[in-house]
Structures are given as structure tokens and as C-alpha cells.
């Protein structure tokens, strides 16, 4: 029964004039009351403020959307012209790029060789064996090319011919 009573109170409040608390008799009176409340100066100024806020929000949204479209257009133009930019860059800097690639390849090759030698040196008895081989080659080279004057001359002519051949091909 409380629920019905509460519903009746709510419906009574909805159909009453707020200022006089008198019940309204017809729908026409309710609509007239709503119209009078809408056209009051306070309500009109409040509505204008809310419309201005809504308009400024819509304008801001449109501006943000146009900024996003502009950014999207610039991005798509950049990616469309990217092959052309790359082509121009490649032709302008072809030689330095190739030189840098060779330097990087040499650095990588040296690091790989050093890693392989480090692994080989970890094998037992491999390091002392390589040291003996190195000493043996040094001793052979010294006796073969550096002890006698004639063999030194032979080494000098061999180096000169290699130098001449290398510089001639370049």
C-alpha cells in the first residue's frame, strides 16, 4: 500500500504547478505551464549558454577532425612519395653509403673471426699449438727472406711487383 501511495504522490507532484502547488486539470494547462517556464528569461539565458557551449564543443570537434584529416593527408602524401625520396637519396649518396656498408661488413667479419678464434682457443692444447705454429712460421720467414742480402732483395722485388699490380688494377 505504501508503494501505491508513493506513486500517487509522485503523479500528484508531476501534475501540479510548482509555484502554487495546485493540481492542473488538463494537459493543455500542463503544456502552457511548460511553455511559460521555457520562455522565462532565466530559462532562455540558460538555454543560450548551453547552446553556445554545445556549439563551441561542436566547432572544436570539427576543428580537431579537420586537423586529424590534415595530418592523415600529409602522412599519406609522405608515404606515397617515400620511394621517390629514397631514390633521390640513393643517387645522391650512393658512394658513401656503399663505403659505410663495407666498413660495417668488415667490422662484423672481424668480430665473427675473433669469436671463432676465442672458441678455438678454449679447446685444450689448441692455443699452445697455434703459438708453436706462429713461432715456426716466424722463424722460417726470417731465415728464408731476412738473413741473406740476396733473399732480402728478392723480397723487395716481390713486394714492389705486388704493389705495382695492386695500384695498376685500382
* Rg (C-alpha, Å): 47 Å
Output the structural class: mainly alpha
The percent of residues in helical segments reads over 70%
Total beta strands: 0
User: What's the main sheet like?
Assistant: none
Arithmetic mean pLDDT:
78
Tally the helices: 6
Through-space gap between termini: 110 Å
What does this structure look like?
- There is one protein chain.
- By secondary structure, the protein is mostly helical.
- Among the domains are: 93-122; 125-170.
- Helices cover 86% and strands 0% of the residues.
- The chain has six helices and no strands.
- The protein has helices at 2-14, 27-38, 41-92, 94-121, 126-146, 149-169.
- The chain is elongated, with a radius of gyration of 47 Å.
Walk me through the topology.
Blueprint: H1 2-14, H2 27-38, H3 41-92, H4 94-121, H5 126-146, H6 149-169
Brief overview, please?
The chain is mainly alpha-helical. It is built from six helices and no strands.
Keywords:
170 residues, 6 helices, disordered N terminus
